[in-house]
Structures are given as C-alpha cells and as structure tokens.
Design brief:
The structure is a single chain. This protein is mostly helical. The chain has one domain. Helices cover 83% and strands 0% of the residues. The longest helix has 31 residues. It is elongated and about 55 Å long. Keywords: Membrane, Signal, Transmembrane, Transmembrane helix.
Length: 141
C-alpha cells in the first residue's frame, strides 16, 4: 500500500488531526463572530456550519484516541464522519458561490475553505492509517 511505516502514518495522522482541529476551532470562532452579520439563508447555512464544526471537533478527539490505541472501529467511524463533513462543506460552498458573489459575506469565508482543505487532508491520512492497520491485521493472521 504505502512505503511509510505504521508509526510514520500514525504520527502524520496525529499531526493532521491536531491541525484540522485547530482550523475547525478557528472557523468556529469566525462563524460565531459572523452570526449577527448574516441574514436569510446565509444565517441558516452558518448555523449548519457551526454545528458541523462542533460535531467534527468531538469526532477528532475520538480519532486521537483511536490513532494512539490502534482502534479500527473508531477510526472507521471518524473516517465516515470526516467524509460526510467534507461532502456537506462542499454542498455549502456550492450554495454560497451560487447565491452570492462575495464569499466573505457568506458562510463560505476564508477560514471555511481552509478548514475544508485540512479536514480533507485529515480524512486521507485517516484512510491511509486505517488501511495500514487492516493490512497489518491480515498479515498477523
């Protein structure tokens, strides 16, 4: 699968989880400051974005535990959660681009896009580490 060792993938995943959590927290802070500024459907999209950030922060906490303890089930659940969040953020980004020319006046601001990118990177890291753990489990049998 990959030439990286399991420890290297684990360290990479833990770094990506912490970076993604930091960007999620930054996006959450930016979204909270924008709550009073946005109106209409942008306000509703912003509330959905805030909810996604809070949920994914909880999932990332569980993913840290799963990466340290090599718990495949929790890693799979976090992988599904990260995938759904990336998909939801993509839909939010498309809706905001279609309805408004200036993205800074929508829920899809700069921190939103950065958070989306690093969440996708965390998802890929999680996928690689999960695949390596499954491969090691199969080789052990």
């Amino acid at each position: 699968m990959c030439i990286c060792s399991t420890t290297g993938l684990k360290i990479t995943l833990l770094i990506l989880i912490h970076v993604a959590a930091g960007f999620n927290a930054a996006q959450l802070a930016k979204d909270i400051t924008m709550l009073d500024k946005l109106v209409g459907h942008h306000h509703i999209v912003l509330i959905i974005s805030i909810t996604l950030c809070v949920i994914i922060l909880i999932v990332l906490i569980a993913a840290v535990y799963a990466a340290i303890r090599h718990h495949i089930l929790i890693l799979n659940i976090s992988l599904v959660s990260l995938t759904l969040k990336c998909l939801a953020k993509g839909i939010i980004l498309i809706v905001c681009i279609i309805t408004e020319n200036n993205l800074q006046r929508t829920a899809a601001h700069f921190w939103f896009i950065l958070c989306w990118i690093f969440t996708a990177a965390c998802m890929v890291g999680n996928l690689c580490f999960s695949m390596r753990l499954r491969e090691n489990l199969r080789n052990a049998d």
